[in-house]
Write a structure and sequence with these properties.
This protein is of the alpha/beta class. It has ten helices and eleven strands. Pfam families: HTH_1, LysR_substrate.
Length: 296
Protein backbone atom coordinates (compact mmCIF):
# COMPACT_ATOMS: atom_id res chain seq x y z
CA UNK A 1 0.00 0.00 0.00
CA UNK A 2 1.33 3.48 -0.90
CA UNK A 3 1.84 5.84 2.05
CA UNK A 4 -0.56 8.77 2.60
CA UNK A 5 0.04 11.71 0.27
CA UNK A 6 1.36 13.89 3.08
CA UNK A 7 4.43 11.61 3.22
CA UNK A 8 5.05 11.77 -0.54
CA UNK A 9 7.25 14.72 -1.57
CA UNK A 10 6.94 16.27 -5.00
CA UNK A 11 9.39 15.20 -7.67
CA UNK A 12 10.74 18.79 -8.14
CA UNK A 13 11.61 19.01 -4.44
CA UNK A 14 13.37 15.63 -4.53
CA UNK A 15 15.29 16.67 -7.64
CA UNK A 16 16.41 19.86 -5.88
CA UNK A 17 17.56 17.96 -2.79
CA UNK A 18 19.41 15.35 -4.86
CA UNK A 19 21.17 18.02 -6.94
CA UNK A 20 22.29 20.02 -3.90
CA UNK A 21 23.64 16.85 -2.28
CA UNK A 22 25.44 15.79 -5.46
CA UNK A 23 26.82 19.22 -6.46
CA UNK A 24 27.27 20.91 -3.10
CA UNK A 25 25.61 24.27 -3.74
CA UNK A 26 22.30 25.84 -4.65
CA UNK A 27 23.85 27.67 -7.61
CA UNK A 28 25.24 24.46 -9.10
CA UNK A 29 21.95 22.66 -8.47
CA UNK A 30 20.05 25.52 -10.12
CA UNK A 31 22.27 25.34 -13.20
CA UNK A 32 21.96 21.57 -13.35
CA UNK A 33 18.14 21.72 -13.21
CA UNK A 34 17.79 24.89 -15.32
CA UNK A 35 16.17 26.76 -12.41
CA UNK A 36 16.97 29.84 -10.36
CA UNK A 37 18.66 29.64 -6.96
CA UNK A 38 15.53 31.03 -5.34
CA UNK A 39 13.48 28.22 -6.93
CA UNK A 40 15.89 25.65 -5.47
CA UNK A 41 15.60 27.29 -2.05
CA UNK A 42 11.78 27.28 -2.23
CA UNK A 43 11.73 23.58 -3.14
CA UNK A 44 14.00 22.71 -0.22
CA UNK A 45 12.00 24.82 2.24
CA UNK A 46 8.76 23.21 1.03
CA UNK A 47 10.32 19.77 1.51
CA UNK A 48 11.48 20.60 5.03
CA UNK A 49 8.05 21.90 5.99
CA UNK A 50 6.36 18.81 4.59
CA UNK A 51 8.74 16.42 6.36
CA UNK A 52 9.02 18.48 9.55
CA UNK A 53 12.78 17.92 9.56
CA UNK A 54 15.75 20.25 8.98
CA UNK A 55 17.48 19.04 5.82
CA UNK A 56 19.87 21.96 5.23
CA UNK A 57 22.58 23.25 7.61
CA UNK A 58 22.13 26.99 7.06
CA UNK A 59 24.74 28.26 9.51
CA UNK A 60 27.60 27.66 7.07
CA UNK A 61 28.84 29.59 4.08
CA UNK A 62 28.56 26.53 1.82
CA UNK A 63 25.17 24.89 1.57
CA UNK A 64 25.43 21.49 3.20
CA UNK A 65 22.88 18.86 4.05
CA UNK A 66 22.31 17.70 7.58
CA UNK A 67 23.00 13.99 8.24
CA UNK A 68 19.26 13.38 7.98
CA UNK A 69 19.13 15.35 4.73
CA UNK A 70 22.08 13.45 3.26
CA UNK A 71 20.48 10.12 4.10
CA UNK A 72 17.17 11.20 2.61
CA UNK A 73 18.94 12.48 -0.53
CA UNK A 74 20.59 9.09 -1.01
CA UNK A 75 17.22 7.34 -0.85
CA UNK A 76 15.70 9.95 -3.17
CA UNK A 77 18.50 9.45 -5.71
CA UNK A 78 17.88 5.71 -5.87
CA UNK A 79 14.12 6.22 -6.28
CA UNK A 80 14.51 8.90 -8.95
CA UNK A 81 16.96 6.71 -10.85
CA UNK A 82 14.56 3.77 -10.85
CA UNK A 83 11.67 6.00 -11.87
CA UNK A 84 13.68 7.41 -14.79
CA UNK A 85 14.67 3.90 -15.88
CA UNK A 86 11.07 2.74 -15.67
CA UNK A 87 10.02 5.70 -17.81
CA UNK A 88 12.63 4.88 -20.45
CA UNK A 89 11.51 1.24 -20.46
CA UNK A 90 7.87 2.25 -20.76
CA UNK A 91 8.60 4.49 -23.75
CA UNK A 92 10.65 1.78 -25.43
CA UNK A 93 8.09 -0.94 -24.69
CA UNK A 94 4.61 0.60 -24.35
CA UNK A 95 3.05 -2.87 -24.12
CA UNK A 96 5.03 -3.53 -20.93
CA UNK A 97 6.70 -6.63 -22.35
CA UNK A 98 10.30 -6.17 -21.26
CA UNK A 99 12.71 -7.09 -18.54
CA UNK A 100 16.40 -6.56 -17.81
CA UNK A 101 18.72 -9.54 -17.50
CA UNK A 102 22.18 -9.14 -15.98
CA UNK A 103 24.59 -11.55 -17.63
CA UNK A 104 28.05 -12.93 -17.05
CA UNK A 105 30.03 -11.65 -20.06
CA UNK A 106 31.41 -14.99 -21.30
CA UNK A 107 28.21 -17.02 -20.87
CA UNK A 108 25.91 -14.19 -21.92
CA UNK A 109 27.78 -13.17 -25.05
CA UNK A 110 28.94 -16.58 -26.28
CA UNK A 111 26.13 -18.94 -25.26
CA UNK A 112 23.01 -16.87 -24.58
CA UNK A 113 23.20 -13.97 -27.03
CA UNK A 114 23.39 -16.14 -30.19
CA UNK A 115 20.15 -17.84 -29.09
CA UNK A 116 18.18 -14.70 -28.20
CA UNK A 117 17.10 -14.24 -31.80
CA UNK A 118 14.97 -17.36 -31.33
CA UNK A 119 13.38 -15.88 -28.20
CA UNK A 120 12.63 -12.62 -30.00
CA UNK A 121 10.96 -14.53 -32.84
CA UNK A 122 8.87 -16.62 -30.45
CA UNK A 123 7.92 -13.63 -28.24
CA UNK A 124 7.96 -10.47 -30.38
CA UNK A 125 6.17 -8.48 -27.66
CA UNK A 126 8.93 -9.04 -25.09
CA UNK A 127 12.21 -7.15 -25.11
CA UNK A 128 15.19 -8.50 -23.18
CA UNK A 129 17.62 -5.77 -22.08
CA UNK A 130 21.12 -7.01 -21.24
CA UNK A 131 23.53 -5.69 -18.60
CA UNK A 132 26.79 -7.38 -17.58
CA UNK A 133 28.16 -8.23 -14.14
CA UNK A 134 30.96 -10.34 -12.70
CA UNK A 135 29.83 -10.74 -9.09
CA UNK A 136 26.46 -11.08 -7.32
CA UNK A 137 24.75 -7.76 -6.64
CA UNK A 138 21.70 -6.46 -4.82
CA UNK A 139 18.57 -6.59 -6.94
CA UNK A 140 17.19 -3.84 -4.72
CA UNK A 141 19.93 -1.43 -5.80
CA UNK A 142 19.99 -2.37 -9.48
CA UNK A 143 17.62 -2.40 -12.42
CA UNK A 144 17.76 -6.09 -13.36
CA UNK A 145 14.83 -8.43 -12.78
CA UNK A 146 16.96 -11.56 -13.26
CA UNK A 147 20.61 -12.54 -13.66
CA UNK A 148 22.89 -15.33 -14.80
CA UNK A 149 24.94 -16.68 -11.89
CA UNK A 150 27.89 -19.08 -11.83
CA UNK A 151 29.14 -21.15 -8.93
CA UNK A 152 26.89 -22.50 -6.19
CA UNK A 153 23.61 -21.40 -4.60
CA UNK A 154 25.33 -18.61 -2.68
CA UNK A 155 23.38 -15.57 -3.96
CA UNK A 156 21.17 -14.53 -1.02
CA UNK A 157 17.48 -13.77 -1.40
CA UNK A 158 16.91 -15.23 -4.87
CA UNK A 159 15.25 -18.19 -6.55
CA UNK A 160 17.30 -20.48 -8.79
CA UNK A 161 16.83 -22.24 -12.12
CA UNK A 162 19.80 -24.59 -12.80
CA UNK A 163 20.99 -24.18 -16.37
CA UNK A 164 24.09 -26.29 -16.99
CA UNK A 165 27.44 -27.25 -15.47
CA UNK A 166 30.40 -25.08 -16.34
CA UNK A 167 32.70 -27.42 -18.23
CA UNK A 168 36.22 -26.08 -18.70
CA UNK A 169 39.13 -27.04 -20.95
CA UNK A 170 42.83 -26.14 -20.57
CA UNK A 171 43.86 -24.25 -23.70
CA UNK A 172 46.82 -22.22 -24.93
CA UNK A 173 48.27 -20.68 -28.06
CA UNK A 174 49.33 -23.38 -30.56
CA UNK A 175 52.94 -22.22 -30.31
CA UNK A 176 53.21 -22.27 -26.51
CA UNK A 177 54.00 -25.99 -26.36
CA UNK A 178 54.98 -28.69 -28.84
CA UNK A 179 51.72 -30.54 -28.26
CA UNK A 180 49.25 -31.46 -25.54
CA UNK A 181 50.87 -32.60 -22.30
CA UNK A 182 50.39 -36.22 -21.31
CA UNK A 183 49.60 -35.62 -17.63
CA UNK A 184 47.91 -32.80 -15.65
CA UNK A 185 50.99 -32.25 -13.47
CA UNK A 186 53.01 -31.18 -16.50
CA UNK A 187 50.88 -28.05 -16.79
CA UNK A 188 52.52 -26.78 -13.59
CA UNK A 189 55.64 -26.15 -15.71
CA UNK A 190 53.77 -23.55 -17.78
CA UNK A 191 52.45 -20.09 -16.87
CA UNK A 192 48.82 -20.37 -15.77
CA UNK A 193 46.27 -17.61 -16.37
CA UNK A 194 43.71 -16.84 -13.66
CA UNK A 195 40.29 -15.19 -13.50
CA UNK A 196 39.90 -12.51 -10.82
CA UNK A 197 36.36 -13.50 -9.90
CA UNK A 198 37.26 -17.21 -9.56
CA UNK A 199 40.96 -17.27 -8.66
CA UNK A 200 40.90 -20.86 -7.37
CA UNK A 201 39.78 -22.51 -10.63
CA UNK A 202 43.19 -24.02 -11.33
CA UNK A 203 43.46 -25.38 -7.78
CA UNK A 204 40.03 -27.01 -8.23
CA UNK A 205 41.06 -28.42 -11.61
CA UNK A 206 44.30 -29.94 -10.28
CA UNK A 207 42.44 -31.32 -7.23
CA UNK A 208 40.00 -33.13 -9.54
CA UNK A 209 43.02 -34.66 -11.28
CA UNK A 210 44.63 -35.69 -7.93
CA UNK A 211 47.53 -33.28 -8.38
CA UNK A 212 48.63 -31.31 -5.27
CA UNK A 213 48.61 -27.61 -6.11
CA UNK A 214 48.17 -24.58 -3.88
CA UNK A 215 48.86 -20.85 -4.02
CA UNK A 216 49.37 -20.93 -7.75
CA UNK A 217 50.68 -17.73 -9.27
CA UNK A 218 50.17 -16.18 -12.65
CA UNK A 219 48.56 -13.33 -14.53
CA UNK A 220 45.14 -12.27 -13.27
CA UNK A 221 42.31 -11.13 -15.59
CA UNK A 222 38.98 -9.52 -14.75
CA UNK A 223 37.00 -11.20 -17.56
CA UNK A 224 37.14 -14.44 -19.53
CA UNK A 225 37.33 -12.50 -22.79
CA UNK A 226 40.52 -10.75 -21.66
CA UNK A 227 41.99 -14.03 -20.41
CA UNK A 228 41.14 -15.63 -23.75
CA UNK A 229 43.11 -12.93 -25.56
CA UNK A 230 45.99 -13.46 -23.15
CA UNK A 231 46.03 -17.16 -24.02
CA UNK A 232 45.78 -16.43 -27.76
CA UNK A 233 48.86 -14.20 -27.50
CA UNK A 234 50.89 -16.88 -25.75
CA UNK A 235 50.84 -15.54 -22.20
CA UNK A 236 49.98 -18.91 -20.67
CA UNK A 237 47.44 -21.70 -20.28
CA UNK A 238 43.84 -20.75 -19.52
CA UNK A 239 40.84 -22.71 -18.26
CA UNK A 240 37.98 -21.65 -20.51
CA UNK A 241 34.32 -22.72 -20.68
CA UNK A 242 33.93 -25.37 -23.37
CA UNK A 243 31.54 -23.25 -25.46
CA UNK A 244 34.21 -20.54 -25.62
CA UNK A 245 37.26 -22.79 -25.94
CA UNK A 246 35.80 -24.94 -28.72
CA UNK A 247 35.08 -21.88 -30.85
CA UNK A 248 38.64 -20.58 -30.45
CA UNK A 249 40.07 -24.03 -31.21
CA UNK A 250 37.93 -24.31 -34.36
CA UNK A 251 39.37 -20.98 -35.55
CA UNK A 252 42.92 -22.15 -34.91
CA UNK A 253 43.58 -19.43 -32.35
CA UNK A 254 43.90 -21.84 -29.42
CA UNK A 255 44.75 -25.51 -28.94
CA UNK A 256 44.11 -28.02 -26.19
CA UNK A 257 46.91 -28.00 -23.63
CA UNK A 258 45.90 -31.52 -22.54
CA UNK A 259 43.65 -34.06 -24.21
CA UNK A 260 40.62 -35.33 -22.34
CA UNK A 261 37.05 -34.54 -21.42
CA UNK A 262 36.06 -31.16 -20.07
CA UNK A 263 35.90 -30.89 -16.27
CA UNK A 264 32.98 -29.33 -14.38
CA UNK A 265 33.93 -26.62 -11.86
CA UNK A 266 30.49 -25.31 -10.98
CA UNK A 267 27.09 -24.59 -12.43
CA UNK A 268 25.29 -21.79 -14.23
CA UNK A 269 21.95 -20.61 -12.84
CA UNK A 270 19.24 -18.15 -13.76
CA UNK A 271 18.40 -16.25 -10.56
CA UNK A 272 15.66 -13.74 -9.73
CA UNK A 273 14.08 -12.13 -6.64
CA UNK A 274 11.03 -13.96 -5.32
CA UNK A 275 8.81 -10.90 -5.88
CA UNK A 276 9.64 -11.01 -9.62
CA UNK A 277 8.76 -14.68 -10.07
CA UNK A 278 5.29 -14.12 -11.54
CA UNK A 279 6.26 -11.34 -13.96
CA UNK A 280 5.02 -12.43 -17.41
CA UNK A 281 8.22 -11.63 -19.39
CA UNK A 282 10.35 -13.54 -16.87
CA UNK A 283 7.98 -16.53 -16.91
CA UNK A 284 8.22 -16.74 -20.70
CA UNK A 285 11.99 -16.34 -20.60
CA UNK A 286 12.33 -19.19 -18.09
CA UNK A 287 10.13 -21.42 -20.22
CA UNK A 288 12.19 -20.59 -23.32
CA UNK A 289 15.46 -21.24 -21.50
CA UNK A 290 14.29 -24.70 -20.45
CA UNK A 291 13.49 -25.52 -24.10
CA UNK A 292 16.95 -24.33 -25.13
CA UNK A 293 18.56 -26.57 -22.54
CA UNK A 294 16.59 -29.57 -23.76
CA UNK A 295 17.77 -28.94 -27.32
CA UNK A 296 21.42 -28.11 -26.66
Amino acid sequence: MIAPRRFLPSIPSLLALEAVDRLGSASAAAEDLSLTQSAISRQLKQLEEQMGVDLIARDQMRMQLTPAGAGFAKEARAILTRLAQASVKLRANPDGGSFTLSILPSFGLHWLAPRLKDFAAAHPGITVNLHTHNLPFSFDAGTAQAAIHYGTRDWPGVEYLPLMPKHVLPVCAPGLMDGPVSSPAELLDYPLLHLETHPDCWEQWFHLHDVPAAKLRGMLFDQSSAMTQGAVHGLGVALLPDFLAENEIAQGRLALAMEGAAVSLGEYFLVWPADQAEEYPLIKFREWLLLQLEEK
